[in-house]
Amino acid sequence: RLPAASQVVGHPVETSCTILDLNGVGLTNFYKVKDTLMEAAAIGQNYYPECMGKFYIINAPYLFSAVWSVVKGWLDEVTVKKIQVMSTGHKEVLLKQIDAENLPVEFGGSCRCPGGCSLSDAGPWHEHATATNSAPAPSTI
User: Fold this and answer.
1) Which residues of the chain carry a pLDDT beneath 50?
2) CA-CA distance, 25 to 93, in Å (whole number)?
3) What are the start-end ranges of the H helices in the chain?
4) What's the whole-model pTM score?
């Protein structure tokens, strides 16, 4: 995906941006979310440190923010700097990083993917794959 995005914008795209919306997450799901976040951060930190860009956690309940202040002590400092936890005010922060046409409307942007942006696989990688697959096969002698 990153090579296809790089080709479209004309410069190397080497990192990804992730948004985790905790809106509606209550105590019953809290520990699952915490464990998932810890696992995702550890995978990014240990296996793909150069590809992990910004990781925004939005609509974070107070309890999550409190636990995050403890959990981040177990992660690498470089990884922690890439993760931003916000209870409110995320629209302005996200729009500094992501163009409005690429940010889902529910996060303050203008993107409305068919079926919802969180389930969408829209992106230049589809055109890149089609162009790659339609190239003529090399001849063998």
Assistant:
1) 134, 137-139
2) 21
3) 2-9, 27-47, 62-71, 77-82, 90-97, 125-133
4) 0.76
